[in-house]
Design goal:
The chain is mostly helical and 233 residues long. The chain is 79% helix and 0% strand. The chain is globular, with a radius of gyration of 20 Å. It starts with a helix and ends with a helix.
């Protein structure tokens, strides 16, 4: 049996037998990425709505930051966070470096611009008359934004799904601020990189299969929810 075939068989065995290390890595990965995506959604969706509705000083700079952040290399995020959280850095007293909390922060930063940018694009596709009609009825900007987000909810869920995919597939920043410590900060992507470098292709492949499966499951669930909301909207 060739290397690929052997790796697939061994990976399937690890998954079917619920390998303890595999489950721990999967659980921590889901906890970190879900937390980061939730925080990024709570910040990014309102930010996208604000950029769509309001014209204010600094708006163009904010748009530039969001657009740049959508394609920003995660390793740069990791470097900046490491400098900030280092013992002698400005936030070193928090002692967050090499912790799951630091990885949540890193993934939040890489997911936030993507969610904000896609939300902004989704709201921009709505009929402008909708916002004008709400304003004519005396609705506040907060209420107008809420109604527009609800009208574009299926597309907003796509933004959330994209943010989750960005967070859970990120490796550079998580590795730099988390340290890939066994039993503490080892997640899907950092573990895959490590096990591949060690030649443990079975565990790396098992982790990869679970990563793909989880990302697919989350996006299918969000897409189904979006269609359901659209059908009842």
């Amino acid at each position: 049996m060739d290397l690929l075939g052997e790796a697939f068989v061994s990976a399937a065995r690890l998954i079917l037998h619920a390998d303890a290390e595999l489950l721990h890595i999967a659980g921590l990965s889901l906890a970190v990425s879900a937390s980061a995506t939730l925080l990024a959604s709570l910040l990014g969706v309102p930010l996208g709505a604000l950029l769509h509705l309001r014209r204010f000083r600094g708006r163009q700079a904010a748009l530039t930051l969001v657009t740049t952040g959508m394609g920003m290399p995660p390793v740069v995020v990791g470097l900046l966070l490491t400098l900030l959280l280092w013992r002698s850095g400005p936030f070193g007293f928090l002692r967050l470096l090499y912790s799951p909390q630091a990885m949540v922060l890193a993934q939040l930063i890489v997911a936030l611009p993507l969610i904000a940018g896609i939300t902004l694009a989704a709201l921009s596709l709505l009929d402008e008359a909708l916002a004008e009609a709400l304003r004519c009825e005396g609705a506040s900007d907060w209420r107008v934004g809420l109604e527009l987000v609800w009208a574009a909810w299926p597309q907003v869920l796509v933004a959330v799904g994209a943010g989750f995919g960005r967070a859970i597939s990120e490796v550079g920043a998580s590795l730099m601020v988390g340290g890939n410590i066994v039993g503490q900060t080892r997640i899907f992507t950092t573990a895959i990189a490590l096990e591949t470098s060690k030649g443990d292709f079975a565990l790396a492949l098992a982790l990869g299969i679970l990563l793909l499966g989880l990302a697919l499951l989350v996006n299918v669930a969000l897409a189904t929810l979006g269609r359901s909301l659209a059908a009842h909207g």
